Amino acid sequence: MKKRLAASLLVFVLSSGASFAGQGDGPSALVRTEAMKHRAVSETLVIYGVVGVDPRSALNVTLPRRGQVLRLMVTAGQIVGRKTPLLEFATGPADAQAFETARNNVAFARSELQRTESLVAQKMATRAQLASAHKTLADAEGTLRTQERIGAGRTSEVVYAPFAGVVTLLGVKPGDRVQAGAPLLQLSRRGEYRIELGVEPEDVAKVKPGMPVGLSPVSRGGKKTEGAIAEVHAIVNARTRLVDVVARVTGKESAMLMPGMQVQGVITLAAAKSWTVPRPAVLRDARGAYIFQAVHGRARRVDVTTGTENDGFISIRGGFDPRQKVVVLGNYELHDGMAVREGSR
Fold first, then answer.
1. Residue 155, SS3 per DSSP
2. Which domains does the chain have, with CATH numbers?
């Protein structure tokens, strides 16, 4: 009986030792590994800003005469088509009187010209007087044409949108009396936007006009819109303490944006080849960033310096061996020199 028990214990010990053969003392850890990749990594800069109207696509609707706003037919933010009625405007009394005066002056100048022509025919007026009468009529007609161009002869007028767009600003309300040339409302073409972004002063030297920038709403995810850097300012904005950078987006790319929207911008600064590992492969402790490589069945800790992260991969520098695989799962359980077993964990 004692011999059989001893034999069983010997078999158990031998079989246990076989399971750790080649792995040294202590248990082994089941890990998953991946090969390191030498790939192009783009350095990016993440910034934030607000979508605004491109002033080159905006029009201040004005009238060249004084008067009163009778009715507003649109609201701020409303989308309008070409020839959509915007407001009704009544000509002011002073401008209406100026038109009547100009029309009366033309009638009087014509009658005076006819009278002078009759006197010249009777040898009772000179050619100089006739020329003066012609000039007086021409001046009066010019003044009347000016009054007609500014619409002073119209008692009231409905103003229509000159193009399809968005009402981005209302400067008046019904009943307001306005001066000639005062902005009544602002109309902007849809899809032509100016995105004002803020860059930290120490990063602004990296940003150049023409660089591509991916834009997405801060409030929700979704597909990014592609734009380009149009302006890089040279002073710090006193309000934001950042340097203003302007991006522009036009056409179909602007469909998801609207004025006033807060956006995140990602500027691609440069691309360079670098050794990369999946993001989960990089761990950190008091000594800094590190990875584990599986070398001959054992975990080897390698301290690294991390760089740019793209698409779930992060660039690293350090004393690693790029021919050896890096541990991407199970690495939290490891310590330097620990035995590892690769599997589909």
1. coil
2. 26-41+273-342 (2.40.420.20), 44-55+190-271 (2.40.30.170), 58-90+157-188 (2.40.50.100), 93-149 (1.10.287.470)
